[in-house]
Design brief:
3 helices, mainly alpha, flat, single chain
Length: 70
Protein backbone atom coordinates (compact mmCIF):
# COMPACT_ATOMS: atom_id res chain seq x y z
CA UNK A 1 0.00 0.00 0.00
CA UNK A 2 1.28 3.49 -0.83
CA UNK A 3 1.74 5.87 2.07
CA UNK A 4 0.42 9.31 1.07
CA UNK A 5 1.51 10.99 4.29
CA UNK A 6 -0.59 12.50 7.02
CA UNK A 7 -4.23 13.16 6.24
CA UNK A 8 -5.23 16.81 6.14
CA UNK A 9 -8.66 17.88 7.31
CA UNK A 10 -11.11 18.55 4.49
CA UNK A 11 -11.48 22.21 5.45
CA UNK A 12 -7.81 22.97 4.77
CA UNK A 13 -8.52 23.08 1.02
CA UNK A 14 -11.48 25.47 1.31
CA UNK A 15 -9.41 28.71 1.00
CA UNK A 16 -7.74 27.48 -2.18
CA UNK A 17 -11.05 26.43 -3.71
CA UNK A 18 -12.58 29.77 -2.73
CA UNK A 19 -9.78 31.69 -4.42
CA UNK A 20 -10.22 29.66 -7.60
CA UNK A 21 -13.96 30.40 -7.62
CA UNK A 22 -13.31 34.11 -7.08
CA UNK A 23 -10.78 34.08 -9.91
CA UNK A 24 -13.38 32.68 -12.30
CA UNK A 25 -15.86 35.35 -11.21
CA UNK A 26 -13.25 38.06 -11.78
CA UNK A 27 -12.60 36.71 -15.26
CA UNK A 28 -16.31 36.81 -16.02
CA UNK A 29 -16.37 40.48 -15.00
CA UNK A 30 -13.52 41.07 -17.42
CA UNK A 31 -15.47 39.32 -20.19
CA UNK A 32 -18.48 41.52 -19.46
CA UNK A 33 -16.27 44.59 -19.73
CA UNK A 34 -15.01 43.45 -23.12
CA UNK A 35 -18.59 42.94 -24.31
CA UNK A 36 -19.54 46.43 -23.10
CA UNK A 37 -16.70 47.90 -25.17
CA UNK A 38 -18.08 46.24 -28.31
CA UNK A 39 -21.69 47.34 -27.67
CA UNK A 40 -21.76 49.86 -30.57
CA UNK A 41 -20.78 47.11 -33.01
CA UNK A 42 -23.51 44.87 -31.61
CA UNK A 43 -26.07 47.62 -32.09
CA UNK A 44 -24.98 48.03 -35.70
CA UNK A 45 -25.11 44.27 -36.39
CA UNK A 46 -27.21 42.47 -33.72
CA UNK A 47 -27.01 39.19 -35.65
CA UNK A 48 -23.47 38.77 -34.28
CA UNK A 49 -24.88 37.91 -30.85
CA UNK A 50 -27.15 35.29 -32.44
CA UNK A 51 -24.05 33.47 -33.71
CA UNK A 52 -22.49 32.98 -30.28
CA UNK A 53 -24.54 29.92 -29.09
CA UNK A 54 -24.07 27.89 -32.31
CA UNK A 55 -20.35 28.64 -32.33
CA UNK A 56 -19.98 27.51 -28.71
CA UNK A 57 -22.05 24.39 -29.39
CA UNK A 58 -19.98 23.38 -32.39
CA UNK A 59 -16.79 24.07 -30.47
CA UNK A 60 -17.94 21.70 -27.72
CA UNK A 61 -18.89 19.05 -30.26
CA UNK A 62 -15.54 19.25 -32.02
CA UNK A 63 -13.73 19.09 -28.68
CA UNK A 64 -15.74 15.98 -27.81
CA UNK A 65 -14.80 14.35 -31.10
CA UNK A 66 -11.11 15.07 -30.58
CA UNK A 67 -11.11 13.89 -26.96
CA UNK A 68 -13.00 10.74 -27.98
CA UNK A 69 -10.16 9.88 -30.36
CA UNK A 70 -7.52 9.97 -27.62
Amino acid sequence: MIDTGPKRPFYSSIPAQTLIALLFNTLSLFAGGVISIFTPQFQAAPWILALVPPVLTSRGGIGGIFSGNL
